[in-house]
Recover the amino acids of this structure.
């Protein structure tokens, strides 16, 4: 199933309502229980000449791991994010970004993600701990601005 940017969501990574955002589209693979994205990152997201900025690499991994919540319809937020920068991630080249769940402990969800080049070489790896939150309480706080 294709996960396109929501036109009312202002998220920097996946929102369709953020004109300066990345507006990322992912694929939800129900059989493999993985989220994947195929991207070429534009030059405005570079750090060193010709390479993706480390913060953008972290954003890609955070987003793909967060999207794994769709399988169980969890409403979860990132509590901890660890990124391993293995090789420089090139601008303008085909990249595969993939996330999956590795463990659940109560409200805590543990996820892993990778960024690979077109030949399958791992360029960056992420591990995240996400915490399930009550969706209604979360939305109330957002509406109040707190």
């Amino acid at each position: 199933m294709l996960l396109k940017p929501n036109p009312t969501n202002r998220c920097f990574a996946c929102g369709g309502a953020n004109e300066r955002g990345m507006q990322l589209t992912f694929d939800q693979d129900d059989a493999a229980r993985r989220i994947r994205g195929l991207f070429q990152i534009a030059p405005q997201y570079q750090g060193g000449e010709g390479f993706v900025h480390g913060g953008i690499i972290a954003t890609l991994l955070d987003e793909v791991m967060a999207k794994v919540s769709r399988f169980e319809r969890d409403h979860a937020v990132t509590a901890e994010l660890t990124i391993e920068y293995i090789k420089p991630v090139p601008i303008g080249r085909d990249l595969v970004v993939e996330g999956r769940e590795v463990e659940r402990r109560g409200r805590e969800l543990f996820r892993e993600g990778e960024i690979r080049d077109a030949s399958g070489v791992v360029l960056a790896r992420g591990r995240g701990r996400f915490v399930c939150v009550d969706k209604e309480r979360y939305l109330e706080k957002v509406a109040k601005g707190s």
Observations:
- The CA atoms of residues 14 and 24 lie 5 Å apart.
